UniProtKB/TrEMBL annotation:
Lineage: Bacteria, Bacillati, Actinomycetota, Actinomycetes, Micrococcales
Organism: Kocuria flava
Domain of life: Bacteria
GO biological process, one term: polysaccharide biosynthetic process
Keywords: NAD, Oxidoreductase
Name the record gives this protein: UDP-glucose 6-dehydrogenase
Length: 445
C-alpha cells in the first residue's frame, strides 16, 4: 500500500515521516516548491523534537519522497491523507476551506487508480460530506475515490509520538458506502490497532466534531483555571495549589489546568472561533456562546501580564529594560502563531519598554512577525541590565534557572512568572521580588 500526504506543514510533514516509519512508501505533496526542495534534502523547515531525525532517515532510504505534482501523487497513492491548513479567514472567525477544497478536488481528479482520501485537517462540521461530493464529481470515469474523515490530534512538541501512538483514532465514514474505505484504513493503521489503540468508527459529522470538541474542551479547561486565577490574585490565594487540589479529583484531572498567560498556537484559538462561526451558520449560536467567554478570559491574561509588569516597574514601563523569556506559544516548539508570549512582548514594546526577547528556538520566527523587538541569543544576554524578568514560555532552560544565576546580571531583582513554574520561596530567598499570574498579588513580606 502506497501513501501520499497532501500538505507538508506540521501535520503533513509529521504524518508523512511517521507513515514511512511504519514501513510505507510515502510521497509528500506541497504546492510550495521551496518546502518540497528542503524536505527532499531531508531538511525540516520547523522545530519538532525527533522529527528531523525521522525525516533524514526515511528520505535517505528513499522510502519518503516529496513532490509538487498532484499528477504524480494521483498515480502513486492508494491512500491520500489531506493535511493542508484551515486558517482563520481574514476579518472573520470562520475557517478558510480553500486549501482543503483544492487539495481534495485536485487529488480526486489526478487519481488513476481506486483510492481513499483521508481528511485530517480540522474542518467545520459538514465539510466532509461536501468534500465527498467534490471528490466524486472530480474523479475520472472508472476510478473509485472514497473519502473518510480521520481527524488528527497531535500536539506540537510531541507530534511524532502522538502520531505513532495516539490516544485514539477516529474514522468518519459515508454510511454503508464507506465499507471499502474502512477496510483500507484498518490496514493502514494495522500496527497501531494491534498494539491496542482504540478506533472509533462513526459518521462524517461526529468525526469532524470530535476534533473541534476536543480542542474546545481543552481551551475551556485552560480558561476555567485562568478565570479562577483572577480571583486568587485578588484574594491572595495560590492558583497552582488550587489546580493541584481539584485535579486530584479523577473526574476533573490535573492536566490542562496550568494557569498563566493562556493558550495560543495554530489550533486552539482559531478552532474555538471557527466552531462559534459554524454554530452560528447552523442556527445554534447559543450552544457554544460560552466559547466567546473562553476566548475573552484568554485574551485578558495578556493584558493582565502587561499590567503586572507595569506595576512591578512602578507604574510605567517607558524606557525600562524588560527581559522576556520565551516567544514560542509553548515550549519545544518554534511556532509563534498567536503566541501569548510574543503578543505580550510586542505590547510592552508598544507602550515604551526596552524589550529583550530570548527564546531557545523561536527567535527567528518571532523576528519575522515583530522585527522591532530586540532578540538576543542567550538567557544571560536577555536578563543583563533587566529591571524585570518576565517568564512567558516554560522552556526547561527557564524552569531550571536560579536566583543566584540571574542576580549578578539583572539591574533590579524582580521576576514575573507568567507560567507558574518557578518556586516562589526559592526566588524570594534569593533576593528577588517574585510575582506570578494567579499566585500572589503582592510579594510576601
Ligand atoms: C492542540 C491540541 O492539544 C492537539 O490535540 C490538537 O491536535 C492541536 O491543538 P497544540 O496547539 O500543539 O495542540 O498545543 P497544546 O499542548 O494543546 O497547548 C495549547 C496552548 O495551551 C499552549 O499555548 C499552551 O501553553 C497552553 N496551555 C496548555 C496552558 O496555558 N495551560 C495548560 O494547562 C495547557
Amino acid at each position: 500500500m502506497k501513501i501520499t500526504v497532501l500538505g507538508t506543514g506540521y501535520l503533513g510533514a509529521t504524518h508523512a515521516a511517521s507513515m514511512a516509519e511504519l514501513g510505507y512508501e510515502v510521497l509528500g505533496v506541497d504546492v510550495d516548491p521551496a518546502k518540497v526542495d528542503a524536505l527532499s534534502r531531508g531538511e525540516l523547515p520547523f522545530h519538532e523534537p525527533g522529527l528531523a531525525e525521522l525525516l533524514r532517515e526515511h528520505v535517505g532510504s528513499g522510502r519518503l519522497r516529496f513532490t509538487t505534482s498532484y499528477e504524480e501523487a494521483g498515480a502513486f497513492g492508494d491512500v491520500h491523507f489531506v493535511g493542508v491548513g484551515t486558517p482563520q479567514r481574514p476579518g472573520a472567525f470562520a475557517a478558510d476551506m480553500r486549501f482543503v477544497d483544492a487539495a481534495v478536488g485536485s487529488i480526486a481528479a489526478a487519481a488513476t487508480k481506486d483510492c481513499v482520501i483521508a481528511g485530517k485537517s480540522t474542518v467545520p462540521v459538514g465539510s466532509a460530506r461536501r468534500l465527498a461530493d467534490i471528490a466524486r464529481a472530480s474523479a475520472r470515469p472508472g476510478v473509485d475515490v472514497q473519502l473518510v474523515w480521520n481527524p488528527e490530534f497531535l500536539r506540537e512538541g510531541f507530534a511524532v509520538a502522538d502520531t505513532l501512538r495516539p490516544d485514539r483514532m477516529v474514522l468518519g465514514l459515508d454510511g454503508a458506502d464507506g465499507a471499502r474505505a474502512e477496510a483500507v484504513m484498518r490496514r493502514v493503521y494495522a500496527r497501531q490497532l494491534e498494539s491496542g489503540v482504540p478506533l472509533i468508527v462513526t459518521d462524517y459529522e461526529t468525526a469532524e466534531l470530535v476534533k473541534v470538541a476536543a480542542n474546545a474542551f481543552l481551551a475551556t479547561k485552560i480558561s476555567f483555571i485562568n478565570a479562577l486565577s483572577e480571583l486568587t490574585e485578588v484574594v491572595g490565594g495560590d492558583i497552582r495549589t488550587l489546580a493541584d487540589a481539584i485535579g486530584l479529583d479523577e473526574r476533573i484531572g490535573r492536566k490542562f489546568l496550568n494557569a498563566g498567560v493562556g493558550f495560543g498556537g495554530g489550533c486552539l484559538p482559531k478552532d474555538i472561533r471557527a466552531l462559534r462561526a459554524r454554530a452560528a451558520e447552523l442556527g445554534v449560536e447559543q450552544s457554544v456562546r460560552f466559547l466567546a467567554e473562553v476566548d475573552d478570559v484568554n485574551t485578558r491574561r495578556r493584558g493582565a501580564t502587561v499590567q503586572a509588569v507595569t506595576e512591578m516597574l512602578g507604574g510605567s514601563v517607558v524606557g525600562k529594560q524588560v527581559a522576556v523569556l520565551g516567544a514560542a506559544f509553548k515550549p519545544d516548539s518554534d511556532d509563534v502563531r498567536d503566541s501569548p508570549a510574543l503578543d505580550i512582548a510586542a505590547r510592552l514594546h508598544s507602550i515604551g519598554a526596552e524589550v529583550a526577547v530570548y527564546d531557545p528556538k523561536a527567535n527567528a520566527n518571532a523576528a519575522k512577525r515583530y522585527p522591532r523587538l530586540d532578540y538576543v541569543d542567550s538567557l544571560e544576554a536577555a536578563v543583563t541590565g533587566a529591571e524585570v524578568v518576565v517568564l512567558l514560555t516554560e522552556w526547561a532552560e527557564f524552569k531550571a534557572m536560579t536566583p543566584a544565576q540571574l542576580e549578578p546580571l539583572v539591574a533590579v531583582p524582580q521576576i514575573l512568572d507568567g507560567r507558574n513554574v518557578l518556586d516562589p520561596q526559592q526566588w524570594e530567598a534569593g533576593g528577588f521580588t517574585y510575582r506570578a499570574l494567579g499566585r500572589r498579588a503582592l510579594p510576601v513580606a
